[in-house]
Specification:
Helix content is 7%, strand content 50%. The protein has 379 residues and is mainly β. The chain has one domain: Porin (Beta Barrel). The strands form two sheets. It has a 16-stranded antiparallel barrel. It has a two-stranded antiparallel ribbon with strand order 11-12. One of its GO terms (biological process) is monoatomic ion transport. GO terms for molecular function: porin activity. InterPro entries: Gram-neg_bact_OMP, Gram_neg_porin_domain, Porin_dom_sf. It is a multi-pass membrane protein.
Length: 379
């Protein structure tokens, strides 16, 4: 009996030891960012607007849960649930989705990470190094609102890094299954459709190379149409219907950045091609260029800015926008900032300087000024 008891005790201890070795963690995190904004010529009558933006300031507000469990042998299970919200009234972002920013589970290994769910596409991830202003209210999203909202439902993603080289790919069986749209004016696209694997499909690939001094990146993304989908170029003209699975909305991007002491420089090009299958609907193409710089005056004070230029020959629309931003860190988690931007539209264009939630479209050919002061806290 004593020998049997010893064996049972040893077994229990071994099981307990194995359970203790499998470590897991869950982290609650988030950003709250808001402020006051003024936009000139915010409607066709040329009236200005004071407001608290609903979508973003320096960064979109969000909260999330991130988990990791060590499975041993260099493998771990991961998950992320991330919800966007609007500070001015507390409503949920991304069309009211509970976890509209990200919702995925995956396995991380020495060979890369494979994950499943609602995730960022490679367009968003590839731009992160060179686009210094990022998802700011006066950033790339003012000229192409899809860029800071580049996510896909029903998505399988792979990310792997090897000696500074990052490879990425995602494939979505139905890019917008909740029917809330991923960017304004794009219409909606169903999820997976029985008997039509191409409808509402999305896929993208990315190649990056990063060093402490510089980095380069390229990406390609293709979206297919669906019965209620559309392609909006955000220039004031009507969106192009993409109601067939044969319709394509393609974005190709190349960018680079360099770290020069206290300076960081970034530049890039984003080409977009909308190719409807119907011969009665014309193809539309645009080219968006950007160049930016950031200077760390002190560890607590940063000045950065970016210049953007977009051309759309098929719509005969063009715009140039310049943004200047200053950020002062009150602590590691809290910062105050002030920023301003001016956008010049061509005669037929009606791009808006502000990506703060719509409602600021000027008359065609009218320039706009946007100014914002804000407060950002991370937790």
């Amino acid at each position: 009996m004593q020998a049997s008891a010893r064996l049972l005790l040893c077994g229990a201890l071994c099981v307990g030891s194995g359970a203790a070795a499998a470590q897991s963690s869950v982290t609650l995190y988030g950003i709250i960012d808001t402020g006051l904004e003024y936009v000139s010529h915010a409607n066709a009558a040329g009236k200005g607007l004071f407001r608290m933006p609903s979508v973003t300031g320096e960064l979109p507000s969000r909260w999330g849960l991130r988990g990791n469990e060590d499975l041993g042998g260099g493998y771990s299970a991961i998950f992320t649930l991330e919800s966007g919200f609007n500070v001015r009234n507390g409503e949920q972002g991304q069309g009211g989705r509970l976890f509209g920013r990200q919702a995925f589970v995956g396995i991380k290994s020495p060979y890369g990470t494979v994950s499943f769910g609602r995730q960022y596409t490679m367009t968003y991830l590839a731009l992160m190094g060179a686009d210094l202003i990022g998802p700011d209210i006066y950033g790339l999203g003012s000229l192409d609102a899809y860029v800071p909202n580049a996510r896909a439902d029903n998505s399988v993603t792979y990310l792997g890094s090897y000696a500074g080289v990052t490879l990425g790919a995602n494939y979505s069986f139905g890019r917008d299954s909740a029917g809330t749209g991923n960017s304004p004016g794009q219409g909606t696209c169903t999820g997976s459709v029985a008997g039509n694997a191409t409808q509402c499909r999305e896929w993208s690939v990315m190649l990056k190379y990063d060093t402490p001094l510089f980095g380069v990146a390229a990406s390609y993304e293709e979206q297919r149409g669906g019965s209620t989908a559309a392609a909006n170029f955000f220039d004031g003209l009507a969106p192009t219907p993409l109601t067939s699975a044969a319709d394509k909305d393609v974005r190709t991007h190349v960018s680079a950045y360099a770290n020069l002491g206290k300076f960081k420089l970034g530049a890039g090009w984003l080409n977009r091609r909308v190719e409807p299958s119907a011969v009665t609907i014309a193809d539309v193409r645009s080219n968006l260029f950007f160049v930016g710089a950031a200077y760390t005056v002190t560890p607590a004070f940063i000045v950065d800015g970016e210049v953007y230029h977009i051309t759309n020959r098929d719509h005969d629309t063009r715009a140039t926008m310049g943004t200047l931003r200053t950020t002062y860190l009150l602590s590691k988690r809290t910062a105050v900032y002030a920023q301003g931007s001016y956008l010049a539209n061509s005669a037929k264009a009606a791009y808006s300087v502000s990506g703060g939630g719509g409602g600021t479209t000027p008359a065609p050919g009218t320039g706009q000024t946007g100014v914002m002061v804000g407060l950002r806290h991370s937790f």
